[in-house]
Amino acid sequence: MSEMYFKQSPKTTVKQWKQRVQFELQGADYNDLLVYKSNEGISLLPFYASENKQFTYEVSAESQAMISLYCSNVEQTLKRINFWLSKKVNYFFITLHFEKNNWIEFFTKLPENGIYFIDIQLLELPFLQKVNELIKNCNRKIFLCNDSIYNFLKNGRWFQNQYADFENFICGISNKNPMIFADTTLYQNAGASMIQQIAYGISQAMEYFKCIHNDFIINELNICFKVAVGDGFMFETSKMRAFRQVAESVFGAFNSKIKIFFIAEPSNRGLSILKSKYNENYIALAYESAILGGADFILPKNPLIYKKYTLENELNSIEEIQKLIENRKASFLNGMCSFEAISYEIAKKSLSLFQNIEKNGGLLQQIKNHTLQKKIKKQAEEEQIFFEKQIESFNVDFQEFAKKNEWELYPFIKQKQQKTLVEPLIAKRLWENIEKRQLKK
């Protein structure tokens, strides 16, 4: 229980409260019964006071709803952008889905009142150079996103090769809105701890920063992290705040003027094929954690992972996010002992792991020697065992699992047998093992 629910009398000391609580426990151990310790060694206390705060870090970011679009048809995508602009959604994360398209026309026709984060990984260098020149001379706010390390880790290989992929990244940096983009969602969805998510995510951005720090004169640089957020409200909110704290600390040490952005989406990790309200509640908590944690942009998520996401569903999700944004601000938690204490612990451990990664050659070295994959796999296995034990103790109605005839999308991992340079990091939902066992009965 945090201090947002627990009002301490100004005449009563923390020591007296602990003594009172211990008396009420009638001999039961205070720490065993009331202090929850995560498998990362971070404690969640029954109440917090000023003595629990070791560091004050204020977050002032105000969240905005953002729409994700996969663009394979220029005209259709432009129509969808105009539709969302009419619904007062001005921020777009756009993935250019394949190469053979008139991308110059697309960039030229983007409405000027939108702000666009565009994933350009599939663009070949000659196209990218043309796009870059176009952006320099247009009035639109466009940020180019290019994270080949994410692809390398997810698929076990580069798009072309490491040199060519990084050359594409460097070409994208030289536009008028230079940005490093690091997609860290795979870590959370594959079972990484909060500390691993932050440390690996910042190391991922650092790999790109090293490429440009000595070769480019950049007065202003944007660094954008895409993050996945689960439903553990206290920890996930604190994780978001700690992520920003560590990122600003690490990159603030350089002379460049650097601005940190966060794009957040609900994680797939805890989603199920249950037809109850479970997934909706999970995603609602993730939205709230992201907003109070200080995400700049929130992407909607389909709560029914076995169903196609319709425009009506997406509208409902955006409305839900916008209502939360109206009533929630990250600044509400500034100075709150519980979140600041937990954020500090997460930040301290994350910074230590980040420094260890850099001392041992950086993130790419960790991926190439499979250290990262092994550590996350170990963490995921421990989480899986704990999760399944929890499910055994709950009264879950397995009849509420959607049957195969109700699926429009396949809800389980699909792995291709293919040659890779490194072992890919595989995203897997915690419910999958249980669902498969139940569906076989």
UniProtKB/TrEMBL annotation:
Q: Which GO terms describe its molecular function?
A: cobalamin binding; intramolecular transferase activity
Gene name tied to this protein: mutA
Q: Which organism is it from?
A: Capnocytophaga felis
Q: Out of the domains of life, which is the source?
A: Bacteria
This protein is called: Methylmalonyl-CoA mutase
Q: Which residues form the Methylmalonyl-CoA mutase alpha/beta chain catalytic domain?
A: 176-296, 338-406
Q: Which SUPFAM superfamilies match?
A: Cobalamin (vitamin B12)-dependent enzymes
